[in-house]
Amino acid sequence: MMVLIKLLLAHIIGDFFLQPEKWVREKEKKKLKSNKLYFHVLIHIVLTSIFLWDISLWSIILTIGITHFIIDATKLSIQKKKTRRLLFFIDQILHIAVIFCCYFIFIENTFQLNNLVTEFNLLLLACLLFLTIPTSIIMKTIFLKWNISELTKNNESLEDAGKYIGILERVLVFIFIIVGHWEAVGFLITAKSVFRFGDLKESKHRQLTEYILIGTLISFGIAIFTGLIFNSLI
User: Fold this and answer.
1) What 8-state DSSP symbol labels residue 143?
2) pTM exceeds 0.70, yes or no
3) Which residues contact 230 (CB under 8 A, 6 or more apart)?
4) What mean pLDDT value characterizes the chain?
5) What is the 3-class SS of 71-97, one letter each residue?
6) Residue 147's pLDDT band (boundaries 50, 70, 90)?
7) Does the structure show a pLDDT above 90 at 131?
8) d(CA 103, CA 68)
9) Which end of the chain is more exposed for a tag (fewer CB within 10 A), N or C?
10) End-to-end CA distance of the chain
């Protein structure tokens, strides 16, 4: 496990601390012609070598160095302005996946898929997935009874911000419940109420207040109910 931690540390330091923003801009501009791309890969190789400090693990160092170059080069080659954010997350997922694969292939050979596919993990995944898009659709269907667009037409807001906030708060509430910290749920409700108080006070719109209150209670209620079901089944 220490090897895995060292590999993750080397990646974090190399990708986020030792890669200046000007390097990123130059790579995006010149792509494969940028010497910063090759410096960046070299930094990862050096960091991985220093953290592992074991010549017998050369295969891990070589694998991470080669795959890091392939992943970054591919991202730069196909990246466009609209896909920049998506490719950033795909890039990081692939790098982390390579690190885990190297660990389980070269260090820990006892890995089995059955260790991941357990009742606990599957139920946890099902609950987390349910609290994202499915719950958002359920809430949207509930609010079809009212003309919400009319209530919020003058409210300037980031696109889909409400949906993402709802997903995050439900996931947090669910996690707090399954780990037994109900007080954190109360803190989250209080924090949201404080942030919303100013908007509601300025709007002086009773229908908008009722809409926000109903939405919050439904969102938290579904998350709490899901957490209780998870705990009872586990």
Assistant:
1) G
2) yes
3) 123, 124, 127, 174, 177, 178
4) 85
5) HHHHHHHHCCCCCHHHHHHHHHHHHHH
6) low
7) yes
8) 15
9) N
10) 27
Which residue, 142, 154, 163, 165, is CA-closest to 211? 142
CB within 8 Å of 150: residues ≥ 6 apart: none
Rounded to the nearest angstrom, the gap between the alpha carbon of residue 211 and the centroid of all alpha carbons in its chain is 28
- Quick check: 120 and 234 in contact, CB under 8 A? yes
3-state secondary structure of 66: helix
Taking CB atoms within 8 Å and a gap of at least 24, the contacts of 216-220 are 216/189, 216/192, 218/139, 218/142, 219/135, 219/139, 219/166, 219/169, 219/170, 220/169, 220/170, 220/173, 220/185, 220/189
Phi and psi torsions of 147, nearest 5°: -85, 85
CA triple 65-68-72, angle to 5 deg? 145
Instruction: Name the nearest CA neighbour of 98 among 212, 17, 11.
Output: 11
15: which DSSP letter?
Answer: I
Fill in the DSSP letter of residue 113: G
CA-to-CA distance for 131 and 221, rounded, in angstroms? 11
For 170, residues 6+ apart whose C-beta sits below 8 A from its C-beta are: 131, 132, 135, 219, 220, 222, 223, 226
Rounded CA separation 87/104 (Å): 26
| Under 8 Å between Cβ of 135 and 222 | yes
Q: If DSSP codes are grouped into helix, strand and coil, which group holds residue 10?
A: helix
Q: Which of 99-108, 126-135, 190-199, 205-214 has the highest mean pLDDT?
A: 126-135
